[in-house]
C-alpha cells in the first residue's frame, strides 16, 4: 500500500495566461514551525509564499523527506512512507530557470509554498492512497520572480474584432519599444485560432543603443521621466503585408515584467500596393476562400484551425485555384506561377521551403477565352477557350505561365487560374490485405492522416525576376489522397477486393464457415454483421437492411463527431419495436454499408463508398 501525493505547479502571467513549471525540483519537508502547523495549513498560500534564504535552508535540511521533478506539463508525484500518513508537510520548489528563457541562474532559488495536511483518498484499482494538490503562483509573485531574478519579460494578449469578442487569427503582432533614439523591436508572434499571442523578451531587447553591445540603456522618449520598463506599442502584418497598427503615440509607458493586453481591429484592411491579390479561393462549390478575414466574418473561409472547408471537408485530387487575371503588370506583359509548402498541422510551422508547381503537377484549367468576330449573323462571335495544364501545355519548364497578350484575349475574372493535382503533394497507398471485417485497420497499418499545404500565387513582369510579387496566399489546406488497396469486399463467401480512398467492408457471421455457416446457409433468427469503416475525414456511416417491410436501419453505428474509423459487430439491423429477426418474411435481403467521405475537389464532394452482402431469410 502506497501513499502518493500528486501535484501540479504553474505560474500566472495574466488572469487568462499561465505557464506550466517544467523541470522544477519540488521538495517535501516535515513541518518546520510545528507550533504553527494549524495556522499555516489553513492560511492562504499567497500569505505563506516566500523566498527561502540560506539560513532557513540549512535549518530545515534534516526535515527533508523526498524530492521530485516536474514534467513538461508541470506535474509531479511523491510517494511517502506509511508512517507519514497522519502528518502535515511543507512544500517548496527550487527554480533555476523559467519557461522560454534559455539562460539559467548560476545559483537556483528556493521558494516556500505552503503547509498541507493531506486528506487521503483510496484508489480502488490499486488500493493505494493519494492526495492531489495543484497550485498556480499568482501574477504578483510569478511575474516578479521571472523578471527580477531571471530578466524574463513577457507580453500576453488577444486580438479581437473591435466591439465584439470575435478573435482574429493569423495576424503577426510585433511589439515595439518607443525610444528617444531608435525604437526597439521586442519580438513577434502570430495570433492563434483564439486570437491569443505571447511575446517573450529580455531587458537587452529594449536597452539597445547605437553603442550596443558596449553600452545598453533604456532611452525613454521623455528623458525627464526616465524609468526602466519599455514603452510598448504594436504593429501588425497579415500574409506578410503591413496593416493598420499603433504608433509610438499609442505607447504604454514603462510597462512591468508582465504586460497583459487586449487589442482590436475594426477589420483587416490591406493597403493597396498597386498589385491586387489574384488568387482568392479554391474550387467553385461553396466558394472556399483561402484566407479572408473581415469584421463581418466570411462563413466560406477555409478554417485556420482545421485547414478544411466550413462543411469539414479536406481536399483531394485536382483542385481548381481561382481568382482574377490581368494581362499586364506595371504596364508590361505578365506571367504567373504557383508555389506550395507543407506545414506541421493546420496551425503549425512551415516545413522546408516553397516549391514551384510544375507542369507534371497540373490538371487542365481554362484561364480565359479568345473572341473572334466571324461575320456570320447567325453566329457572330467565335469563342475558343484557352487552357493550361499537363495536356494543354501553356507552362514553361520553370513553372511560369505566360498570360496571352492578344487584344482579343479575355482573361478570367473570378475564374480558373490553375488546376493543381494534389496527389503529387501527398499521394500514396496503404495495403489493407489481410484486414478482417469488424476489426480495426490498425491491425494492418497505422491510421492514415491528412497533410497540410499552403498555396501561393506569384506574379512578375515576363522574364523579370526582380519584379516578382506575391498575389494571394492560402491558409494551410488539409489534403488527403491516400488509396487503401486490397480492401476486402462482399464478405468471406464471395471475397473480392477494392482500391478506394477509404475503407468500407462488412461480413455476416452466420455466413462465415468458422461461425458454423456457409454461403448458402439461410438466416433464421439471428443476424450479426461485422463492419469496418475508416478515413480521417469520415462523415456519416450507415448500415441498412433492405428487403420486405424495410429498409431497416442499424442503431449505434454512425461515428459521433470526427473520428478516423469505426468498427465492430452490429446485432440489430432493423427497429426491434417493429419486427424481430425471427419475424422477418422468408425472402432475400441485402445488407449495405455506406460510408461518407468528407473529401472535396472544390467542385463536388467525393461519393460515398459501400460494401454489401445478400442473404436468404428462412
Automatic annotation (TrEMBL):
Name of the protein described by the UniProt record: Carboxypeptidase regulatory-like domain-containing protein
Organism: Dawidia soli
Organism placement in taxonomy: Bacteria, Pseudomonadati, Bacteroidota, Cytophagia, Cytophagales
Top-rank taxon: Bacteria
Amino acid at each position: 500500500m502506497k501513499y502518493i501525493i500528486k501535484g501540479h505547479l504553474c505560474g500566472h502571467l495574466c488572469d487568462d495566461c499561465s505557464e506550466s513549471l517544467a523541470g522544477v525540483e519540488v521538495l517535501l519537508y516535515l513541518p518546520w514551525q510545528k507550533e504553527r502547523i494549524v495556522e499555516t495549513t489553513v492560511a492562504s498560500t499567497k500569505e505563506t509564499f516566500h523566498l527561502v534564504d540560506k539560513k532557513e535552508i540549512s535549518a530545515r535540511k534534516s526535515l527533508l523527506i523526498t524530492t521530485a521533478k516536474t514534467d513538461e506539463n508541470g506535474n509531479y508525484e511523491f510517494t511517502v512512507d506509511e508512517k507519514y500518513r497522519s502528518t502535515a508537510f511543507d512544500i517548496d520548489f527550487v527554480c533555476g530557470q523559467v519557461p522560454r528563457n534559455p539562460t539559467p541562474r548560476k545559483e537556483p532559488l528556493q521558494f516556500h509554498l505552503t503547509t498541507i495536511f493531506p486528506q487521503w483518498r483510496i484508489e480502488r484499482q490499486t488500493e493505494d492512497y493519494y492526495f492531489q494538490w495543484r497550485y498556480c503562483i499568482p501574477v504578483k509573485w510569478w511575474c516578479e520572480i521571472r523578471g527580477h531574478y531571471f530578466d524574463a519579460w513577457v507580453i500576453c494578449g488577444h486580438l479581437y474584432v473591435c466591439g465584439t469578442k470575435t478573435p482574429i487569427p493569423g495576424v503577426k503582432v510585433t511589439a515595439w519599444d518607443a525610444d528617444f533614439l531608435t525604437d526597439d523591436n521586442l519580438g513577434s508572434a502570430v495570433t492563434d485560432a483564439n486570437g491569443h499571442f505571447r511575446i517573450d523578451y529580455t531587458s537587452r531587447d529594449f536597452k539597445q543603443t547605437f553603442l550596443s553591445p558596449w553600452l545598453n540603456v533604456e532611452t525613454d522618449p521623455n528623458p525627464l521621466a526616465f524609468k526602466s520598463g519599455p514603452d510598448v506599442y504594436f504593429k501588425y502584418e497579415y500574409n506578410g503585408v503591413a496593416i493598420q497598427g499603433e504608433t509610438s503615440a499609442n505607447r504604454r509607458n514603462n510597462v512591468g515584467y508582465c504586460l497583459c493586453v487586449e487589442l482590436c481591429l475594426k477589420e483587416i484592411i490591406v493597403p493597396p500596393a498597386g498589385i491586387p491579390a489574384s488568387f482568392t479561393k479554391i474550387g467553385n462549390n461553396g466558394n472556399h476562400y483561402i484566407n479572408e478575414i473581415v469584421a463581418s466574418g466570411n462563413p466560406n473561409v477555409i478554417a485556420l484551425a482545421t485547414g478544411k472547408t466550413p462543411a469539414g471537408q479536406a481536399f483531394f485530387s485536382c483542385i481548381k485555384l481561382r481568382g482574377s487575371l490581368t494581362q499586364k503588370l506595371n504596364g508590361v506583359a505578365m506571367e504567373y506561377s504557383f508555389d506550395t509548402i507543407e506545414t506541421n498541422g493546420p496551425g503549425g510551422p512551415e516545413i522546408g521551403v516553397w516549391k514551384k508547381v510544375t507542369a507534371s503537377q497540373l490538371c487542365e484549367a481554362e484561364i480565359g477565352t479568345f473572341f473572334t468576330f466571324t461575320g456570320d449573323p447567325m453566329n457572330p462571335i467565335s469563342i475558343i477557350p484557352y487552357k493550361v495544364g499537363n495536356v494543354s501545355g501553356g507552362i514553361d519548364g520553370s513553372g511560369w505561365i505566360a498570360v496571352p497578350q492578344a487584344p482579343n484575349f479575355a482573361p478570367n475574372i473570378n475564374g480558373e487560374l490553375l488546376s493543381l493535382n494534389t496527389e503529387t503533394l501527398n499521394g500514396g497507398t496503404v495495403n489493407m490485405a489481410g484486414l478482417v471485417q469488424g476489426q480495426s485497420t490498425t491491425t494492418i497499418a497505422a491510421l492514415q492522416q491528412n497533410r497540410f499545404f499552403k498555396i501561393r500565387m506569384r506574379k512578375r513582369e515576363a522574364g523579370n525576376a526582380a519584379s516578382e510579387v506575391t498575389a494571394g496566399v492560402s491558409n494551410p489546406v488539409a489534403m488527403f489522397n491516400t488509396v487503401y488497396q486490397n480492401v476486402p469486399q462482399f464478405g468471406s463467401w464471395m471475397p473480392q477486393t477494392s482500391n478506394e480512398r477509404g475503407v468500407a467492408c462488412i461480413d455476416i457471421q452466420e455466413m462465415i464457415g468458422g461461425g458454423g455457416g456457409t454461403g448458402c446457409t439461410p438466416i433464421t433468427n439471428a443476424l450479426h454483421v461485422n463492419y469496418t469503416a475508416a478515413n480521417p475525414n469520415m462523415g456519416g456511416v450507415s448500415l441498412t437492411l433492405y428487403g420486405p417491410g424495410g429498409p431497416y436501419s442499424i442503431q449505434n453505428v454512425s461515428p459521433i463527431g470526427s473520428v478516423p474509423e469505426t468498427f465492430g459487430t452490429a446485432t440489430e439491423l432493423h427497429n426491434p419495436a417493429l419486427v424481430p429477426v425471427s419475424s422477418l418474411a422468408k425472402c432475400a435481403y441485402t445488407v449495405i454499408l455506406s460510408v461518407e467521405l468528407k473529401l472535396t475537389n472544390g467542385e463536388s464532394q467525393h461519393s460515398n463508398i459501400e460494401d454489401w452482402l445478400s442473404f436468404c431469410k428462412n
